Amino acid sequence: MLTFKSHNMNAKQLLNKLLDMQSEGIDLSKVALNYRTDPDSDVERITYVSEDLYDCETNFTLESIVFMNDASQYE
User: Fold this and answer.
1) How many structural domains is the chain composed of?
2) 40-59: per-residue pLDDT in tens?
3) 43, 58, 69, 75: most buried, per Cβ within 10 A?
4) Antiparallel, parallel or unpaired: β 34-35 and 44-45
């Protein structure tokens, strides 16, 4: 399990974890994406990922991505 206690996970860390799983033989195309706020909370399915926020000075540098469970406005 990949956890970070002192800071938020970034996109590179997520990518590296996924690549590690793939190199261990896991077929990522068969792995669902879920979200929980804690181990005892209900599962929320992630159905879409999108660019989120850009830097406030130039609005050019992507600073975050967002995972969503309702992508109906993008379909």
Assistant:
1) 1
2) 999 999 999 999 999 999 99
3) 69
4) antiparallel
